[in-house]
Amino acid sequence: MITVRHVDKAFPARNGNAATLALHGVNLTIDTDEFVSVVGPSGCGKTTLLRMIAGLVLPDAGAIAIDGRPVTGPGPDRAVVFQQFSLLPWATVADNIAFGLELRGMPRDERLAIADDQIHAMGLRGFERHYPRQLSGGMQQRVGLARALAVNPAILLMDEPFASVDAQTRRTLQEDLRTLAERTRKTIVFVTHDIDEAVRLADRVVLLSPRPGQVVESLPVGLSRPRPEDLDQEPAAIQLKAYLWRQLRGMQQATSPKSRP
Amino acid sequence: MSRRPRFASLGRLLQDRRAGWLSLPAGIVAWEIAGRVSQFAFLPPFSAAVSAVWRMTWSGELPQSVAASLTALVVGYASAVCVGIPLGIVMGRYRRVDAFLDVYVTILIATPKLLFVPILFSLFGTSRLTQVIFIYLSAVVVITVNARSGVRGVDAASVEMARAFGATERQVLTRILLPGALPMIMAGVRMGMARAVRAMIMGDMLIALVGMGALLRKYGGRFDAASVFGLLLVIVGVALACTSTIRSVERRMTRWTEES
Amino acid sequence: MTTTDRTHRNLRIASIALLIVGWELAARALDSMFVPSFVETAAAFCRIVSTRPFWHAIGISHQAFVIGFGCALIAGTLLGLAMGRWRAVEAICDPYVNVLLATPISAVIPVIILAVGLNLPARALVVFLFAIAVIVVNTRAGLKTIEPALIDMARGFGATELQMWRTILIPGALPAMMAGCYLGLGRALTGMIAVELLLVAVGIGRMILDCQGMFAADMLYATVVFVAGEAVLLLSAVRWLEHRITPWNDQVAIE
């Protein structure tokens, strides 16, 4: 279980600009094995929140704990999937997938065996010895996901993972992720700006306010598991999406230049 | 990063930039002390070098030499820019020209230009012309190659677009290729200046026997370490001045490009 | 081979032929004892390449080259990596590196001769100084071009400092380091010859000076052609190595 209590985060002043308060008083609880989607307007701090859970950034105030233990840095219980894939350009697909295991000191044979399982599971068979630059965006993100799964984390942290991928591939990846979530027991925190994606994938949607970000609402997605075939027709989904869009639009109007006095 | 706690403060210290301010002044102070304290005849204190520069300036020796060196530099470098940029553009635009001239470019890029000096001697003797040609050769290759690269790097789609709007060859060159290639051209011009300055000094010392380099050899031959170091300071100053002049020209001309 | 490729190849051949023929004709027209023709140069080349004193001189010059360039590679790489990784190191060393980069090292040669003498260490030091600045600058730049996202990613997987260097920083900086090696090699060769021409008449420099003194223009040209050829070969070898070691990248070198 992930608990975020009264978390503040500010970024220092740079180049003559004032300091930015990215998050203020964020309170959030994510249950074990829950799939939570974090949405909000641009700049609301959702990526920062994710990175704090990952342990890459420490909060200025408040505390983040996992199963009661405070988060002080990255750990073997969490793995991140990045928007820009962040694959090693000089390593093959297999070596990229095995990267997390390599850092933990696992011997080569063992980690390549685990990587091989992931290659099979992610549909990357035949591309083991390819280099990232030879792969499409969708394939590269599969490698990114495989890499995260290879270290068998209890918590999967995903930072707008499908934003850099074309629309068709995105749908396929979403479906694969959904299947994965239903098959395995993992806590998943999924940051996205796409409402449709959030509702499609998550058990619960958390809405953040514009900067400084706070949790505005936390809404359960009342859709069955496994998801029905055509989500676009489900009345529960339509309602929830419409509601979230209204909220977001309201936030954006409130902060747009025209509405300022 | 998961560091052990005792290294954390070292890590923060290592990331602190402010130590840089003290660096050069500290170095000069260290030089002064070392010069006064050490027994080595070859290491005069900083102050001795400075007073040697003062002396040479007042005697007129130094201004004359600087003028002589810079004259050769300006002529050689300007020629290199005037020849190198158009040549590079033409080579970048027309593949046939490039194929024809590529042989010379490859040889000139790889060969240390210094090796051409004996050949230049045999053709032109030990004259100022030889030094100017040496400076020219040192700079022209890198300017040409960068201009060529710059033109080649311009998006073919932009050229096609211009053609679709009925642009003539000349318009394509001036409105698409030149602006697009400008960053790389200026980079080449900057690198060319650095090489020209080095060739200028080498040429002074080896070929023309006038100018700053020649003074350097003269005082070196007399084991006058203070004058040698003083001249070195002047030469470094001149080199930095030349390269930063070009750098600011470069910055002004490429202001429209994104910061890389 | 396409028609365009063939045309290009023919142009290249024509270019070389023009060079050779032009040289031959110009030399004969000039009829100077200082300018040998292509044929004379070629003949001299074959002659000197088969004599022992020639290779002895090459050896002497290259001792300084190998020691100086080798040290420059090691020291330059270490310093460049340190400067790229730790801002304090960069801030302290940056002014000196900039000065070194801008300074014509040939100007420093008299000082080195005063300090160290007319011997192998002096020549090696000159070669070292010629090469080191570009190596440092390119290595440092190589570290800076690594995407911060990659470093973040490795941190996310719990990489230690050592692992960060081994898996991210060194491989990431490698293309730029090769570029620095390429430029450094050219500079080192220049340094090797410069010190010999200017002040320490041994090796290749001595040979050139001797040829000039003896008015043996054909041997002079032949020596120049030999060293030029060596430079072309060595630099091509580095280029080839670059493609082998870092096939994933092509970076623009600095200076």
Report a brief summary of the structure.
Chain A has 261 residues and is α/β, with parallel strands linked by helices.
Architecture blueprint of SSEs:
The complex is a heterotrimer of chains A (261), B (260) and C (255).
Chain A lengths: L1 E10 L8 E11 L4 E5 L6 H9 L6 E6 L2 E2 L7 E4 L11 H5 L1 H5 L4 H14 L15 H14 L4 E5 L7 H17 L3 E5 L3 H7 L2 E5 L6 E6 L14 H21 L6
Helix pairs in contact in A: 4-5, 7-8
Chain B lengths: L4 H10 L4 H19 L8 H13 L2 H33 L1 H16 L5 H9 L3 H26 L2 H9 L4 H40 L3 H10 L3 H29 L7
Chain C lengths: L2 H28 L7 H12 L2 H34 L1 H16 L2 H12 L3 H25 L3 H9 L4 H38 L4 H12 L2 H29 L10
Helix pairs in contact in C: 2-10, 3-4, 3-6, 3-8, 3-9, 4-6, 5-6, 6-8, 8-9, 8-10, 9-10
Low-confidence stretches of chain C: none
Shape summary of chain C:
flat
- Shape, per Cα inertia axes of chain B: globular
Overall helicity of chain C: over 70%
**Alpha-carbon Rg of chain C, integer:** 22 Å
Count helical runs of chain C. 10
CATH second-level architecture of the largest domain in chain C: Orthogonal Bundle
Oligomer: heterotrimer
Number of strands of chain C: 0
Class computed from helices, strands and strand pairing of chain C: mainly alpha
DSSP helical segment count of chain B: 11
What's the number of structural domains of chain B? 1
Q: Biggest sheet of chain C, in brief?
A: none
CATH top-level class of the largest domain in chain C = Mainly Alpha
Give the N-to-C terminal Cα separation of chain B. Answer: 27 Å
Q: Kindly report the name of the CATH homologous superfamily of the largest domain in chain C.
A: MetI-like
Structural category of chain B: mainly alpha
Describe the protein's architecture and organization.
The complex is a heterotrimer of chains A (261), B (260) and C (255). The longest helix of chain A has 21 residues, at 235-255. Chain A is α/β, with parallel strands linked by helices. The model of chain A has no long low-confidence stretch (mean pLDDT 87). Chain A is globular, with a radius of gyration of 19 Å. Chain A contains eight helices and ten strands. Chain A has helices at residues 46-54, 93-97, 99-103, 108-121, 137-150, 167-183, 195-201, 235-255; strands at residues 2-11, 20-30, 35-39, 61-66, 69-70, 78-81, 155-159, 187-191, 204-208, 215-220. Chain A has two domains: 2-77 and 156-256, Rossmann fold (3-Layer(aba) Sandwich); 83-152, no CATH class. With 260 residues, chain B is mainly alpha-helical. Chain B has one domain: MetI-like fold (Orthogonal Bundle). Chain B contains eleven helices and no strands. In chain B, helix 3 packs across helix 11 (225-253), helix 9 (169-208) runs antiparallel to helix 11 (225-253) and helix 10 (212-221) packs antiparallel against helix 11. Chain B starts with a helix and ends in a 7-residue tail after the last helix. Residues 1-5 of chain B have low confidence and may be disordered. Chain C has 255 residues and is an all-alpha fold. Chain C folds into two domains: 1-31; 36-245, Orthogonal Bundle (MetI-like fold), CATH 1.10.3720. Chain C has ten helices and no strands. The longest helix of chain C has 38 residues, at 161-198. Chain C is flat, with a radius of gyration of 22 Å. Classes of the chains: A alpha/beta (261), B mainly alpha (260), C mainly alpha (255). The interface between B and C is large, with 69 and 67 residues.
